[in-house]
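Weekly sync, protein design subgroup
Attendees: M.S., D.O., the rotation student, P.L. (late)

Item 1: inverse folding check
M.S. brought a backbone from last month's batch and wanted to see whether the design step gives back something sensible before we order anything. D.O. pointed out we never logged the input encoding, so this time it goes straight into the notes. Structure tokens as presented (437 positions):
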């Protein structure tokens, strides 16, 4: 609880924490808006496909001309990463294959990495974390995003002596959403397509939040960081409000929804008939935990925790997250404490490609949030057994043999560039997991 004091000492010593930001989109812009108000934290380089767009983002969020003038803007992420005056690299492109390349380059250059790019983390995070440890730098999830916030709550519960029963987040979900495409996404956000286009909002990116893919990615990231299990049949998205978390998200043997204790799950803000759930957790995160003795359960009641009817299962939640506006917590934690705010340590879960429509030879997969596939969470052992194609590699691959709508796309169903660095790294991780298993 002393990050602000620690960074203040760096100001006194004339040694600010220096950051290179890769990707100046919405997440990056929210972070940039806070930077002028955190003495001792400097963004010295920003890399984006359009440096002019990145400069405009800085202007939009309130940067002074003087601050913009001393910041380096690049269209080549490698040039920003390699700078001698960079301590921490923030990877916020959202492109899994690019994210892995950028992270490995940063690690080779002795920089800490804050991985906003959850897609990249789910694809090969445990390997990246190990490479960072060997290089004596930090590889971290991004605070402000829901996976890191959930991991913090899991850590709190375990360090307090409770058994973690479930952890995850809320979202707006109905089963039909898996079929939503970029053409039909904006109705779910209450926007007209022309208004979204005028605001520069990317329909495919926003669609990944609707069709279930982003939820799967975030839950698998939590599972791989905490060791919690992934549901065998994918996320169920049970309707549930804040007051019912401990009732719904307990094991079936105790009257709840879960196959077993210790799982990730997403709760929906909608009942299956479309009615809104009271006190929904659409923008928040939660943990459900169990008292391991009668005395602790009695304390739950005495201190007015929200529990199930047995009194042994309780919940803690945060009804919001502030995305990039909280990102500095990860940056300062890495640079000043040498600690990650969540880190992939296991390969417990995977996110695999599922066909949104009948796919035929010659079709080309268009990735997360697109027209051809959506991402389903799956235990890693089941994914490997099925030879399933991870969602992070499901962009630009040509289909080689038919895949029916609703079926899992397999490696053998598509043409994958096996000589690509990211594909090789993923293959190595799969081989290592099979050997360890």
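Designed sequence read out in the meeting:
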């Amino acid at each position: 609880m002393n990050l602000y004091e620690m960074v203040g000492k760096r100001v006194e010593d004339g040694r600010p924490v220096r950051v290179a930001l890769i990707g100046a989109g919405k997440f990056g812009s929210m972070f940039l808006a806070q930077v002028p108000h955190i003495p001792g934290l400097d963004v010295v380089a920003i890399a984006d496909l359009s440096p002019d767009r990145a400069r405009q983002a800085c202007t939009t969020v309130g940067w002074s001309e003087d601050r913009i003038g001393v910041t380096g803007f690049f269209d080549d992420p490698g040039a920003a990463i390699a700078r001698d005056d960079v301590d921490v690299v923030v990877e916020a492109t959202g492109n899994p294959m690019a994210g892995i390349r950028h992270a490995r380059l940063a690690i080779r250059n002795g920089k800490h990495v804050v991985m906003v790019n959850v897609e990249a983390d789910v694809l090969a995070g445990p390997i990246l974390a190990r490479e960072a440890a060997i290089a004596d730098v930090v590889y971290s999830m991004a605070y402000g995003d829901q996976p890191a916030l959930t991991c913090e709550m899991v850590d709190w519960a375990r360090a307090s002596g409770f058994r973690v029963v479930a952890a995850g987040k809320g979202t707006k979900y109905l089963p039909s959403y898996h079929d939503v495409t970029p053409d039909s996404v904006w109705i779910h956000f209450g926007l007209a397509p022309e208004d979204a286009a005028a605001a520069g909002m990317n329909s495919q990116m926003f669609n990944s939040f609707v069709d279930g893919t982003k939820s799967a990615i975030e839950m698998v990231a939590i599972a791989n960081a905490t060791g919690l299990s992934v549901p065998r049949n994918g996320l169920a998205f049970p309707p549930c409000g804040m007051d019912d978390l401990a009732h719904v998200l307990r094991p079936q043997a105790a009257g709840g929804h879960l196959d077993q204790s210790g799982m990730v799950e997403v709760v929906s803000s909608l009942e299956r008939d479309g009615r809104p759930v009271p006190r929904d957790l659409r923008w928040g995160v939660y943990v459900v935990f169990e008292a391991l003795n009668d005395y602790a359960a009695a304390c739950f009641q005495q201190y007015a925790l929200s529990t199930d009817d047995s009194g042994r299962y309780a919940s803690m939640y945060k009804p919001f997250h502030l995305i990039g506006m909280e990102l500095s917590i990860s940056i300062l934690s890495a640079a000043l404490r040498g600690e990650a705010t969540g880190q992939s340590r296991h390969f417990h879960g995977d996110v695999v490609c599922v066909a949104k429509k009948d796919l035929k030879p010659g079709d080309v997969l268009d990735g997360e949030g697109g027209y051809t596939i959506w991402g389903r969470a799956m235990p890693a052992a089941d994914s490997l057994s099925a030879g399933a194609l991870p969602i992070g590699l499901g962009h630009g691959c040509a289909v080689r043999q038919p895949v029916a709508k609703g079926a899992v796309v397999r490696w053998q169903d598509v043409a994958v560039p096996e000589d690509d660095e990211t594909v090789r790294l993923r293959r190595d991780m799969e081989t290592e997991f099979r050997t360890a298993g």
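Discussion: The chain has a mean pLDDT of 96. Residues 245 and 311 are 13 Å apart (CA to CA).
Action: P.L. to compare against the previous round before Friday.
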